[in-house]
Design goal:
By secondary structure, the protein is of the alpha+beta class. The protein has five helices and four strands. 9% of the residues are buried.
Length: 126
C-alpha cells in the first residue's frame, strides 16, 4: 500500500469526485463485500453501466468500515444526469440490493443516495 497507485492518463482534462460510505461493523460482511467487488466477482453489467454513463475511472478505498470512492470523469460530465441514467441500467437496482446487506445506510436507497459526496477542503495550492 505504501507504493501508491498508478493514476491513468486520459489525454484530456478530467475532474474528480470523492464520496464516502460506511459498512456495517462486521468482519465477515466486510470480507464478503471485498470479495463481491473483486475483478472475478464484480458484475460485468455494472462495470459496463459505469462506463456507459461517462465515468472514466472509479476506485474504492477502505479503512476499517469506512469506504472512500474516487470517480474520474471528463470535464463536461454532469453528475446528476449520469446518476439518474445509471439507476435505470440493467441489473443496477439488483446490484444495489445485493450490496445493501453490507452497507450502513438505507437498503432501499440508490447508489447516489448511499454514497455521500465529500468536499475537498485542501489541495496543494498553485
Amino acid at each position: 500500500m505504501t507504493e501508491g497507485y498508478v493514476v491513468k492518463q486520459y489525454g484530456q482534462p478530467v475532474k474528480r469526485y470523492c464520496q464516502t460510505m460506511d459498512l456495517k461493523d462486521n468482519p465477515e460482511l466486510i470480507a464478503e463485500y471485498r470479495k463481491r467487488h473483486s475483478e472475478k466477482e464484480a458484475w460485468k453489467e455494472i462495470l459496463d453501466g459505469i462506463r456507459q454513463v461517462g465515468i472514466l475511472e472509479m476506485e474504492i478505498y477502505i479503512l476499517g468500515t469506512r469506504l472512500v470512492m474516487i470517480v474520474e470523469t471528463p470535464i463536461d460530465f454532469e453528475w446528476e444526469t449520469a446518476m439518474e441514467k445509471l439507476a435505470t441500467l440493467p441489473r443496477q437496482q439488483e446490484w444495489e440490493e445485493y450490496m445493501a446487506i453490507f452497507q450502513d445506510c438505507d437498503p432501499d436507497a440508490t447508489s447516489d443516495e448511499k454514497w455521500q459526496m465529500m468536499e475537498r477542503m485542501f489541495h496543494l495550492y498553485d
